[in-house]
Amino acid sequence: MPALALVLVTTAAAPAGAIHRGTKAPIASYGFMVSLRLAETPDDHRCGGTLVEPDIVLTAAHCVARLPPGGLVAVVGADMPDWPKAPRVETLGHRIPDTFTFRVDNRDDIAVVRLASPQSAKTVPLATSEPRVGTKVVTAGWGCTNAPPVCKVEATSLQASGQNVLRDAACGRDVFWTRPTYAARTNICTRGTKARSTINRGDSGGPLLVRGPSGAFRQAGVTALGSDSTKKLYAGFTSVPVERRWIAAAIRSLRGG
Predict the structure, then answer these.
(1) Contact partners, residue 34, CB within 8 Å, separation at least 6
(2) Model confidence over 229-242: pLDDT tens digits?
(3) Residue 82 contacts by C-beta under 8 Å, 6 or more apart in sequence?
(4) Contact present, 171 and 181 (Cβ < 8 Å)
(5) Higher pLDDT, residue 111 or 171
(6) How far apart are CA 201 and CA 187, in angstroms?
(7) Distance CA 203, CA 198 (A)
(8) Helix (H, G, I), strand (E, B), or coil: what is residue 244?
(9) Is 114:73 a contact under the CB 8 Å cutoff?
(10) By CB neighbour count within 10 A (0-12 exposed, 13-18 middle, 19+ buried), where does 123 fall?
(11) 40 CB contacts (<8 Å, ≥6 apart)?
(12) pLDDT digits (tens, 9 = 90+) for 172-195
């Protein structure tokens, strides 16, 4: 399996990482960020996520696939210096699309997780349309800050990276998986606005963000794929606008609706 096919994070035995050549992101501006951990290792960051409703976290399917209901805990709206004392919020369950399988391709790499108690942290609204090619967007995450595809240097705070949206074809087989392929209607492809600034292992499940009309963030994507190339440091995100109907149905299902 390619080095960055799955960009999970933990500070223990599982794969780890975060944004390379990013900048410090003040948690006050990113209070919707969530750190997801395995319930059995609640102090070890696994994946990013976002609070999209007071009791719902949006993340990547490969972050939660094969886990039992309640197999995750979450730290909501806190940055790394505050993690030791931050509450670990239990979860009630999660949903992933029936069509997701990274043995075939990475389409529909998205998931929703229900928290055991509603949170007071800010939520991030979901974008209703994909950002156009050339749009400047932002991604954020925790973990290693060295150049991908390896993970050697852990971050000490939340990091953000400006990205430019590219044509889907730009994230081709010379950058991402050859087999399985990256290609799917559910993907958004980006490249850093700063040279070589990109995601690394550990940013999975985090957001791709656009500025709304008021200047506030809206979430357009979920971090899914990092580049296998050490030169073409592109990134792949699951499209939130494409998945909006599935997200709404999955939330209803988690609430018993």
Answers:
(1) 48, 49, 50, 51, 57, 59, 74, 75, 76, 77
(2) 777 888 999 999 99
(3) none
(4) no
(5) 111
(6) 18
(7) 10
(8) helix
(9) no
(10) middle
(11) none
(12) 776 776 566 666 778 899 999 988
